[in-house]
Amino acid sequence: MKFPTPKRKIVTEATQSFTFSRRAMVVGGLQGAIGALLVGRMGWISIAENEKYQLLSESNRVNLTLIPPRRGWIVDRNGRPLANNRTDFRVDLIPQRIVDAEATVGHLAQLLSLQPDDVERIKEELDKSAGFRPVQVADKLTYDQFAAVSVRLTDLPGVAPSQGFSRHYPAGATVGHLLGYVGAATAEDYKKRKDPLLITPGFKVGKDGLERAYDEHLTGKPGAKRVEVTARGKIVRELTTRPDTPGNPIKLTIDAGLQEYAGRRLATQSGAVVVIDCHNGDVLACASMPSFDPNSFSDGISHLEWEMLSKDDHVPLRNKVLQGLYPPGSTVKPMVALALLEAGVSPAETVSCGGAIRVGNTLFHCHKKRGHGPLNMRGAIAQSCDIYFYQMAQRIGMDRIASMARRVGMGQRFDLPFPSQSYGTVPDPAWKLKKYNQKWQVYDTVNATIGQGYMLINPLQMAVMAARLATGRQLMPNFLHGAARPEPALVGVPEEHLVTIRDAMSAVVNGGGTGGAARMSIPNVLIAGKTGTAQVRRITMAERAGGVRGNAGLPFKLRDHALFQGFAPFDNPRYAIACIIEHGGHTIRNEDAPMIASDTMSYLFDPQKAMEKLVTLEKGWGGTPAERQARQMAAFRLAKAIEKGQAPPPAAAANGSEAANASAPTASPPPPAPSSAEPDDGDDLPAPPGPGNP
């Protein structure tokens, strides 16, 4: 089969010219289109997006650095600073920019003479850092230290020296729990807010106390600094600087002098003091000791100091004013007496105290083993007789007592600017049934009427109770100076009942009662009050038969709490006070609740005289709280060094220096230890908290 031969196409010059022209047109069209696109894009970039690329170009040449704003001051009622700012040279590390962390930290430790525990803290924070959060190396540097780091920045990538302001607390530990402290924002804070200010070196946020509660109010607006840099980031010159706007100040009701005095007057004890203005409920002092120095926390507390604070059995990290709960002991007896008067009990009616009373199958004791004999209401409060209140409370029942307790502030929740509070307990039959699904028993009433059993209170509530007994008004505690508040309601009892209670509370201190140690040395000023002793352990029948062990012979945690609440002047109440000493046990007279409360009140009437007494007392206690804490830290650091084998034990060190000491002059003896005798006036020892003790 033959296939047809295709016709051969004849290519001529004309056909070649046509084909070339057609292809040239297609290529030319494509080139034109591409050219038009390029011109359009260039026009878009140069005109429509001119600002964007100009900013990007400028950012390669200019660095914009935020300037942390200064926090607003916190001042007392007289304008005296409780928290302010001071000029500060500091050095931070930016983790994501560090090349060799170990070498960088070592170099900085040498330049800045950092302590080993500071180096350990820095390394721990670098390990935990999310990369963008700056890690503080040191602050409060001298200019020479600041300059020594600044000139070596090319060899220290990731190091950020800066000049700014740091938070400062002039009163130190005495305002630790009241004001709280500031610190660097956490990674969680940044993830929530995405605010670049949070990762700016030197910027701090409120972490606790009033610093945390009013953080937004205290935080100002950041400033900014523009500097011209090379491609490698070296600063060429500073262009412009926009200053920061400081935060708003806060004026508190606190009296700075009184606050510091109260903290120092608590001496070596673990406890709290609260003072309230009876005219309006302003809190004048709110001290919880021992405490922490907020300057240490704001600067970045070392691991060693944190360990020391967390292991201290006096619990310096707990705000005892708001978070501590204690059985109120006999400090509730004036309140119970007010409930008795409301129920129709005559203040002249007497009860014979023989030292013990049987309730059901349980024997409840009075603190005076042989009894007080016949006592009326005034005498029972003055001598803190338990038997009187055991009998009377059974007559009126717990519901009436619980109602009065709530009216004077016990168990009440106050609207306060603190993130963590404990509110205590006012027990009654309904409460016990709901809480434990058990019926209320007579012995529950007996225990509660002397402030034991289920009843709990915090020091602020105790101060409010004292203020309401003094005024007959339901005053509410307040921390902001000049805050608008409604007129307080009345407690709801006749004035003659209040007069009876105030007179009995005056007899406690000034009429031969249990609180004689609280007598004030201020002319024409009498303090009225009520002492209290709250048991923390059960006293067995065998121990009572053989003699109850004194608090001085017990371990710290088994000693009774010592309490005092009162007001002054007695005849025209102006100030109310509450003092609780944890496990104080009335073992040291000068450090007992009644005398601490009396001296603190004396400061309000004669500051100079009160300070002179305090300075004298502090010589026997080992100095101010700051001085005692410094020695405690040094001892703890030495103990840790010995534990790690970095220092010889004291015996070895003493043997090594024996020859040198033999030729050295004899050192002056240390000051004598404070007396540990029991108070002259004594106090009440409540009955056991449960029915199981005969």
UniProtKB/TrEMBL annotation:
Pfam families: PBP_dimer, Transpeptidase. One of its GO terms (biological process) is proteolysis. Gene3D superfamilies: DD-peptidase/beta-lactamase superfamily, Penicillin-binding protein 2a (Domain 2). This is Penicillin-binding protein 2. GO terms for cellular component: plasma membrane. Residues 67-239 form the Penicillin-binding protein dimerisation domain. It is a single-pass membrane protein. The keyword Transferase does not apply. Residues 652-666 have a biased composition (Low complexity). Keywords: Carboxypeptidase, Cell inner membrane, Cell membrane, Cell shape, Cell wall biogenesis/degradation, Hydrolase, Membrane, Peptidoglycan synthesis, Protease, Transmembrane, Transmembrane helix. Residues 642-694 are annotated as: Disordered. Residues 271-592 form the Penicillin-binding protein transpeptidase domain. PANTHER family: PEPTIDOGLYCAN D,D-TRANSPEPTIDASE (PTHR30627), PEPTIDOGLYCAN D,D-TRANSPEPTIDASE MRDA (PTHR30627:SF2). It comes from Sphingobium yanoikuyae ATCC 51230. Its main location: membrane. The lineage of its organism: Bacteria, Pseudomonadati, Pseudomonadota, Alphaproteobacteria, Sphingomonadales.
